[in-house]
Amino acid sequence: MVASGARKAAIIGGGVIGGGWAARFALMGWNVRIHDTDRDAERRINAILGRARASMPGLWDVALPDEGKISFHDDLAEAVEGAEWIQESVPERLDLKHEVYAAIQSACTETAIIGSSSSGFRPSELAEGAARPGQIVVAHPFNPVYLIPLVEIVTGPGTGEARIERIRSTLRDIGAHPLFLRREIDAHIADRLLAAVWREALWLVSDGVADTAEIDDAIRYGFGLRWAQMGLFETYRIAGGEAGMRQLLTRLGASPNLPWSKLTDMPELTDELVETIASQSDAQSGRHSTAELEQIRDANLVSILRGLKTRDWGAGRLLNATDRRIDGAPKGLDALSLTGPLPTGARAVPLDWSDINGHMTEHRYLQAFGDATDRFLGLVGCDAEYIACGHSYFTAETHIRHLAEIRAGALIEIDTQLLLAEGRRMQVFHRMWESSRLVATAEHMLVHVDLGSRRAVAPPADLKERLDKVAAAHAHLPRPEGAGAAVGRPLERKAETDAGPEAG
Ligand SMILES: NC(=O)c1ccc[n+]([C@@H]2O[C@H](COP(=O)([O-])OP(=O)(O)OC[C@H]3O[C@@H](n4cnc5c(N)ncnc54)[C@H](O)[C@@H]3O)[C@@H](O)[C@H]2O)c1
After folding, report:
1. Tens digit of pLDDT for each residue in 411-427?
2. Which residue from 9, 256, 272, 359 has the highest number of Cβ atoms inside 10 Å of its Cβ?
3. Which residues are in the 3-hydroxyacyl-CoA dehydrogenase C-terminal domain (predicted)?
């Protein structure tokens, strides 16, 4: 389904980066219009969109807005018409970018933000000769744009506070992390850091110290893991011991302070060095196509990001904040009709929930259903605050049925019927849907416990009252198909066989 009142973005230049922007905007519910001078751009963007649909929505534990409409336009003016955000991602050539801004500004509204993906140019260079220079800012993303949250923002004197606020809120809206530079500088922050590492890596190959695979291992088995979660300064602060950063900076012989670097000299990219690096890279990674490497990269990034999410740290903290912001689910019974099963979950299947068979693996069903139980308990008032006061429900028994395959990126929705709420016991029945297709069910018996004595006790009167209200309403619902089933045979057949041995 496409959101008709969706906000509009235009992407000018739909290559690796423009395609990634298109995916991020569209999957966050924006309608996206794309203009590219190359006829093959649509095919390439569709491939990027396919990877993004499988990987991006599952970063969050709640459902994203309905995907926006994506359209391709030969005419640049048609693409930018009515767009709130226009992202230029044409090749890194200043004359070409100037030409494109002139065309954009003659057709877009004055209030639209024009972001440039430029990796190196300053906004003052980009806006040279522009009709409205303050409208153009650097919005520098990282590949793949649909998974990496950082966008470096470089504004100019004409940007203005109101526009800065809109840039901040728009990027937050699409789940990105805007990092505003204090002043403009060639290649912004991240690419300058990367340039330093790249330069040293080229020297290491050029001097025959290491090959490309060894350099990549030095990063991915080592400091790359630290950088992804703490960056550079926080990591080194720990290296300084209890006295922290001051100790590290002043300690004689502390490794970061030694003059090991080749300073600013780049090795000359002679034919020989190019050949050495390219053939080492072929030996290292040539068995994988670029498309395979992109899939591997996306799956690894999703695992890392979701891991950081459980730690509520770094990029994981941003994902959690976005979950809270976009979660539109009701928080209590008052906002719900009790005449049907209660909505207790809506989310995309994360890429790291897939198994070797290419579908959602068993234990993730329990995770999704467990989250639905938590959501149901929250609705009846057994939430974090209630648990902190000393009572909770423990799950005593679970029966899951896997009825149909579900793949990464699919939107799953769960609803919950209360089958029993008597004394200390509560029995719930969850159904998991992909669109109108029932893909799994789960039945759980839960027991109310006193967290001090760890023993089963009856729930207090106010919780019991809310449960009774749901139970009374749900008593009118038909018993769900599959409720009370034993493994391998539904309850009805079990009842028959309990009565006597099956004939034959
Ligand atoms: N590749 C990266 O990792 C990366 C990362 C961050 C930023 N960037 C920046 O993003 C920008 C685009 O880089 P890319 O890697 O996506 O390049 P790309 O070559 O993959 O894509 C550029 C696209 O622009 C199209 N194009 C060329 N002229 C055009 C025109 N006049 N109008 C409309 N479309 C036109 C091309 O057909 C192509 O599809 C550059 O400024 C680059 O510095 C790149």
Report:
1. 999 999 999 999 999 99
2. 9
3. 189-255
